[in-house]
Structure to design on (192 residues):
């Protein structure tokens, strides 16, 4: 009986701990300074926030690709009022960066997709090693239940996410190019 009551209490706590942005029907436009701002659907208010779209070239010679990136259309002077900006919302979509900066014109923001209690996005980051610079892509998620940004998914990070579904995890372990399948498996994980 005691175990049943404890299980019931834990279930209630988990249900009510759910991120507000998952239950709100309207995304509030504005600037996000923290993952918690996103989770609570509480950005710094910008009713007339516009989104600028761009494409970033990445890859190697002979294998050049493009990935869309976005930025909020606010002045650099206005942006300097904030500490590092992690994302923004235009009222329709949420855009997040893996490299928060106080000047959003220097950060690459990417449109997120809601998958269960995660925000998934494929991001692009500038790598600078020994005066050589290039862009790389990576899969990233925001766990809204834990208010945590999980940058650059790896097998180990992803395994922790789907650990509770042993059948799906075993299927994932048998895949050849697992790094190309994070979004697909995350979607499958939440269909059950």
């Amino acid at each position: 009986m005691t175990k049943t009551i404890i299980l019931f209490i834990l279930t209630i706590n988990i249900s009510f701990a759910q991120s507000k942005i998952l239950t709100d029907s309207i995304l509030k436009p504005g600037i996000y300074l923290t993952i918690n701002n996103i989770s609570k659907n509480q950005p710094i208010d910008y009713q007339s926030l516009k989104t600028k779209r761009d494409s970033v070239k990445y890859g190697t010679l002979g294998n050049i690709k493009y990935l869309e990136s976005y930025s909020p259309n606010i002045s650099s002077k206005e942006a300097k009022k904030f500490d590092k900006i992690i994302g923004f919302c235009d009222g329709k979509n949420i855009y997040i960066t893996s490299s928060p900066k106080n000047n959003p014109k220097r950060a690459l923001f990417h449109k997120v997709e809601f998958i269960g209690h995660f925000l998934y996005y494929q991001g692009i980051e500038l790598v600078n090693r020994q005066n050589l610079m290039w862009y790389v892509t990576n899969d990233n998620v925001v766990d809204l239940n834990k208010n945590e940004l999980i940058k650059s998914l790896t097998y180990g990070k992803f395994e922790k996410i789907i650990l509770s579904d042993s059948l799906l995890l075993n299927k994932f372990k048998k895949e050849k190019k697992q790094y190309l399948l994070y979004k697909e498996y995350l979607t499958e994980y939440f269909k059950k």
Summary: The longest helix spans residues 2-16. Confidence is low (pLDDT under 50) at residues 3-16. Residues 22-152 form one domain.
